[in-house]
Amino acid sequence: MAPLPALAAIVVALPLTLLPQDRSASWEWPLSTQRVERAFAPPQSEYGPGHRGVDIPGRPGEDVRAVAAGTVTFAGQVGGIMTVTVDHGVERSTYQPVAASVAPGDAVRRGDRLGTLLPSHPSCTSTCLNLGRLRGSDYLDPADRLRAEGRFRLISPEGPPPEPPSWNGSGLVNLLGGPITSPFGMRVHPVTGERKLHDGVDLGAACGTPVPVLASGRVSRSEYRGAYGEHVEVVHADGRATSYSHLSRRQAKAGDQVAAGDVIGAVGSTGRSTGCHLHLMLLVDGAPVDPLSAQG
Description:
- By secondary structure, this protein is mostly beta strands.
- Helix content is 5%, strand content 37%.
- The chain has two domains: 22-144, Glucose Permease (Domain IIA) (Distorted Sandwich); 169-293, Glucose Permease (Domain IIA) (Distorted Sandwich), CATH 2.70.70.
């Protein structure tokens, strides 16, 4: 097998005419939020059910921007949903639901405004943009092109893996590769409208994202728990406990011994939830405390 540097040199040496588009080229995020709420799930057949794009959470009236330079080829309704399509040469991007400020034939640059986000889409539990990616008639995963904005760190495939996240805040921020979408503290509940304590931190991630446990311990609860939805709680050697809620599925049962980094479930939106995320709690003497303020 040729070494990787030699392969890279061969690719660089190919005539540009054989590479109409760099397939690794990144896209700009079309909204200020840089998080996928619902992932791409291609249909099994051309007309079968599936999720042909990714959903990105946003706010009604927020500017929607072009992911890359191209030409607007469509701005109108598709199945009753306001849609914009931009042709980038080899691929096209689609945006729903958008009140267009562009027209077919308009040339746009990367990051140019295409219109404003409308407040509803059939696949969203709250306001979101459905971003699609097509090559010919084939639907592809837009997340493969969206820029990570430094949220991911490449590691060597050789040697031991890095240590699992610690108790401190920086570890929690990167636990699922996404942002903290709602911190610990008093807030107005997004579902009930009550002002009450938010007893954990919400970590943004797509449904189905594996959830690792923060530290070794024993699973004390694994159950459906009302507003928390599918819920797993782990008691650790120092007496503290962490819990993981709104899961789409649980992969640990009460009594199991788990090590730091073991997957105990997957991100979901079960219970009283407005979208895919992980509700992470830290309990000290049975009372919730801010996980971001806890020290190792």
